[in-house]
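Sequence only, no structure available. Ideas?
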Amino acid sequence: MFNCILSHYHLQEKDWLYSDPSPVQVGHHFELNVKLTQAATQCPSCQGTKFYRHGTTPHPRKVQLTEYMGLPCFLMITIERYRCVTCGMTQSSQIPEQLVLKGHKDSTLLKTQIIRRLTEKEPIKDASHDLNVSSHSFYQLIIKCFFVFY
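Reply:
I predicted one. Tokens follow.
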């Protein structure tokens, strides 16, 4: 499944590590654990170009995808951190914007599914049930989609 996500978003496979390409069921949802290993290119404070690995983010970033086998599916992204050799500033790689917009937790794929359901004039209650999103979250995503895409 993760290979399909990579090809859909035009992401490079060399920047991602995963042990199992299929999601694992955890309770009432599926999780796909991946690690973003995209190396830092330039320090934002001193413009240095030499880095060394400095662990990973303490908690994985949880991104909601559409669904997998009738249950919600989440992409759990662990991000590597890097420390600048020159100034000692720590930074982590940014998740590509074609997968998730900065500051959001819902994938752009989920947002396009919402827009598609609205253009097909499907009732919000049915669409939110099919996408495994609560009605309140669906309304919030509509507002976010409206301001992002228009």
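The CA atoms of residues 20 and 84 lie 32 Å apart.
Hope that gets you unstuck.
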